[in-house]
Amino acid sequence: MTLFIFDNTFEGLLTSVFEAYSRRTFPDALLAEGEPLPLFYDEAFTVVSDEEKAGRVWRGLQKKLSASALSCLTQCWLAEEPETASLLFRYIRKAIDASRSIETNFADPDVLEFSRMWKRVDWERIRMLQFVRFQKAADGTYFAAVEPEKNVLPLITGHFKDRFADQCWLIYDIKRAYGYYYDLKEVRNVVFGEDSREGHLVTGILDESLMDKDEKLFQQLWKTYFKAICIKERLNPRKHRQDMPVRYWKYLTEKQT
């Protein structure tokens, strides 16, 4: 058994593909640094991410896959599922080796699973667009905490930049401890140090001392509106949980007591 160990980045994945073709040795397993090694294996090769090598693979894929498929490839990387890296490695290899496009060859199990993985990521992206709730801070910044199942934050910032172009905002992923801040000009990636990660960066709820003076009132108005439009005779808890899964309730204003 041959193992490739990489740094668990997309650039590292593409570099792994380059090294496999260069060495003419394709791994039986692709592991991220720090993952436990299997009990028995023949060789373990550590891949060093290389921008030039990754770029060559990407340019090769551009000749084999449509722009849409390439976009799906980068989005699937955000799935963060146990088999993500291995599946994408196999998909890329098949795309390179095939004489014709593999994009619609759903008889191939890897192509089919690639399509399903993309749908899972895209569905999480759509849910985030629906369930982000901002809280206005005293300095005028709008803060929203999220905890998505997939790492979809990079996929939704463009929407909020266009939708709230006249407002400073911060969307923060509690689970992954990073976020994006919009300063009215550009969206920037932000990461806070361990000492800064307390209060609202852990709970996702602004302390009243940090809120805008009218934020509490607006939250109460939103809760009142949410209850007012609810027709008790038509309550369907099962359908409600299907449309608005419980895992999102933690950061929804209307679900706070």
Can you offer a commentary on this structure?
- The chain is α/β, with parallel strands linked by helices and 257 residues long.
- It folds into 2 domains: 2-124, no CATH class; 132-255, no CATH class.
- The protein has 9 helices and 8 strands.
- The strands form 2 sheets. Strands 4-5-6-7-8 form a 5-stranded mixed β-sheet. It has a 3-stranded parallel β-sheet with strand order 2-1-3, with helices on one face.
- The longest helix is centred in the middle third of the chain and has 23 residues, at 109-131.
- The radius of gyration is 22 Å and the shape is elongated.
- The termini are far apart.
- Pfam families: DUF4130 (PF13566).
- Residues 83-254 form the DUF4130 domain.
- This is DNA metabolism protein.
- InterPro entries: DNA_repair_put, DUF4130.
**Helix and strand element order:** EHEEHHHHEEHEEEHHH
* DSSP helical segment count: 9
Determine the N-to-C terminus distance. 55 Å
| Poorly predicted ranges | none
**Could you report the average pLDDT, rounded to the nearest whole number?**
92
If strands are numbered along the chain, what order do they take across the biggest sheet? Answer: 4-5-6-7-8
What is the strand tally? 8
Structural class: alpha/beta
What percent of residues adopt helix (DSSP H or I)?
40-55%
Shape: elongated
Question: What portion of the residues fall into strands of 2 or more residues?
Answer: 5-15%
Radius of gyration: 22 Å
How many structural domains can be distinguished in the coordinates?
2
Major beta sheet summary: 5 strands, mixed
InterPro entries: DNA_repair_put, DUF4130
Domain DUF4130: 83-254
Pfam families: DUF4130
Protein name: DNA metabolism protein
